[in-house]
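Q: What residues go here?
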């Protein structure tokens, strides 16, 4: 009766009661509190258990695939090189060698678009490198000896050009290597020929 009197005297706010109780016959039953949970945050794609291996490159401390990166053709970075990322105006990031011929200009003119970069897990044998070979033109057999040496190291040659003048030649080879160690093996093997004066990586 006290409760009914309180209602009659408007000492009870029925709106508040309806929020917390429901009528069941002549009784008021307390409603169960509903706890709202914040929606679960989606896991970052690189934390997926399906992606066990580390990414090929890290950019700004994050997996490179978040930035849609590619390797710059002007310097052809190879696993093991010191590298940096350069944000493109049209989107994406180009990975350059620290020793790239364009590096000084990029840092001087567009430092705000430079990202620190480092290698992650490299398992693919698909880095393109270009080398320059200079030596004495001994006649027939120069090309075959050079290409056979590279083939013996498991190197796939993409292109080979050679020119000669005054008894000397210069050859340029575009080839696929696994990393900088693989590249150095190739250069050392070519330098073993006594008629090869130099074998270096192209700038």
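A:
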């Amino acid at each position: 009766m006290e409760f009914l009197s309180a209602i009659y005297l408007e000492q009870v706010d029925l709106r508040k009661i309806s929020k917390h109780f429901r009528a069941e016959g002549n009784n008021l039953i307390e409603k169960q509190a509903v706890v709202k949970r914040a929606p679960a945050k989606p896991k970052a794609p690189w934390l997926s258990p399906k992606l066990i291996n580390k990414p090929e490159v890290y950019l700004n401390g994050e997996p490179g695939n978040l930035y849609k990166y590619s390797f710059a053709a002007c310097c052809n970075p190879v696993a093991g090189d010191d590298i940096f990322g350069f944000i493109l105006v049209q989107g994406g990031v180009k990975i350059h060698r620290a020793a790239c011929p364009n590096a000084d200009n990029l840092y001087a003119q567009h430092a705000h678009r430079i990202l620190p970069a480092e290698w992650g897990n490299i398992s693919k044998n698909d880095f393109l490198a270009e080398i320059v070979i200079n030596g004495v033109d001994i006649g027939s057999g120069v090309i075959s000896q050079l290409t056979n040496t590279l083939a013996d190291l498991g190197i796939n040659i993409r292109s080979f050009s050679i020119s000669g003048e005054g008894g000397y030649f210069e050859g340029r080879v575009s080839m696929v290597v696994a990393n900088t160690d693989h590249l150095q093996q190739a250069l050392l093997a070519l330098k073993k020929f006594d008629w090869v004066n130099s074998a270096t990586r192209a700038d």
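A: Context that may help when evaluating the design: DSSP finds five helices and twelve strands in the chain. Helices lie at 2-8, 14-20, 103-109, 142-152, 180-191.
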